[in-house]
Amino acid sequence: MAENDWDMVTVLRKKGPTASQAKSKRVILAAQRRGEDVETSKKWAAGQNKQHSITKNTAKLDRETEELHHDRVTLEVGKVIQQGRQSKGLTRKDLATKINEKPQVIADYESGWAIPNNQVLGKIERAIGLKLRGKDIGKPTEKGPRAK
């Protein structure tokens, strides 16, 4: 008749403090008063995204006066592209299709807003037959075998 014994209590397991309770100052002080070993450590930048540190301090950045910007295609190159395209009877869309680029790329190069890309400039040079890079901008390109 052990199952009817009301005075006997069986404890299967005893739960310890939860994570939030274990971190509270009251629980830590109570454990120290009881003489238990308590180890606490402060995490640096806990809960923040501080993986990447900034190398320059903000005061130095504030004192920085130089304005940084990308080089753009000159208006001279833009005019040469426009004249070469018109002399071949091509629209911006036709030229863009011929060199496998978007029409907006041609518009940017002609207006001088584009950041120079040698691959795109090379394709445009071959399509319109005029040099766009170097000293002799606007002169016809030489047709011949490439040197390897």
Supply the key terms.
148 residues, mainly alpha, 0% strand
Q: In sequence order, what are the helices and strands, one letter per element?
A: HHHHHHH
Largest sheet: none
Q: What Rg is obtained from the alpha carbons, in whole angstroms?
A: 37 Å
Shape: elongated
Helix content: 40-55%
Mean pLDDT: 81
Number of alpha- plus pi-helical segments: 7
Share of β-strand residues: under 5%
Describe the overall structure.
It is built from 7 helices and no strands. The protein is mostly helical. The model has no long low-confidence stretch (mean pLDDT 81). The longest helix has 13 residues, at 75-87. It is 41% helix and 0% strand. It has helices at 19-23, 25-33, 58-63, 75-87, 92-99, 103-111, 118-128.
Blueprint (SSEs and pairs):
Elements: H1 19-23, H2 25-33, H3 58-63, H4 75-87, H5 92-99, H6 103-111, H7 118-128
Question: Would you summarize the structure shown here?
Answer:
This protein has helices at residues 19-23, 25-33, 58-63, 75-87, 92-99, 103-111, 118-128. The protein has 148 residues and is mainly alpha-helical.
